[in-house]
Amino acid sequence: MAKDIEYGTDQYAPNKDYQDPPPAPLIDAEELGKWSLYRAIIAEFIATLLFLYITVLTVIGYKSQSDTKHNGDECGGVGILGIAWAFGGMIFVLVYCTAGISGGHINPAVTFGLFLARKISLARAVMYMIAQCLGAICGCGLVKAFQKAYYVNYGGGANELAPGYSTGTGLAAEIIGTFVLVYTVFSATDPKRNARDSHVPVLAPLPIGFAVFMVHLATIPITGTGINPARSFGAAVIYGKDKAWDDQWIFWVGPFIGAAIAALYHQYILRAGAVKALGSFRSNA
């Protein structure tokens, strides 16, 4: 069977060979017996817990400091810009810390996109998503345990569709926002970059964190920015109000659609996966 080998075109790294790693098996029974899988699941759980703890505290802190009904200042707190930095900065930090252990997904949409691209097995994808959702619930639970009054009074950091926006607008915001994030993940972790752009050092967590930051700037006024089903689910579970649950489907359907489009776009358009598959078929024939 012909191997898909490409060569870098960079003048600083001429003819540096490159080969795509083989696709992950759909079901990998051998993987289930390895400690590395369970270590990665624990890393995803803890990372998502920390992510929700810091970011929800930031959201609640901003709302309390800018609440004029309780001696707050309209210009007080970190503002929307600060909230966006909190989300983007935490993703940068946590992806940097966990990338070598679990891949640093911290988001079921990212896990789903990588599964569609055959980067991880089905069992790993499902276990990651469960760990991420549990971590998000525990992270929000810690916030409520430490600051229950603030948590209840200021919305618990739950994602909801803002007044004045239609369901279609909110869904589109989540689809496009998640597309930007997952597309960035694929681009930042693309092994071909080492062959093509070896002279340009790329710290993968940095562009991923910036993608989260930029999407939050654009969509906080619309949906509060989900682009992470675990983040929305964990906040809704602990907050428990009807509005958060009524809009919950938007924060699952939107991110999963956006992740699927990003995976297909990167693998089959940018990386010409369909052309390679056709070429391999013809060479075998």
Automatic annotation (TrEMBL):
NCBIfam families: MIP. It is found in: Membrane. Pfam families: MIP (PF00230). InterPro entries: Aquaporin-like, Aquaporin_transptr, MIP, MIP_CS. Belongs to the MIP/aquaporin (TC 1.A.8) family. PIP (TC 1.A.8.11) subfamily. PANTHER family: AQUAPORIN OR AQUAGLYCEROPORIN RELATED (PTHR45687). It comes from the Eukaryota. The chain crosses the membrane at residues 41-62, 82-104, 125-146, 166-188, 200-222, 249-270. This is Aquaporin pip2-3. Signal peptide: none annotated. One of its GO terms (molecular function) is channel activity. Its main location: membrane. It is a multi-pass membrane protein. The keyword Membrane applies. Keywords: Membrane, Transmembrane, Transmembrane helix, Transport. GO terms for cellular component: membrane.
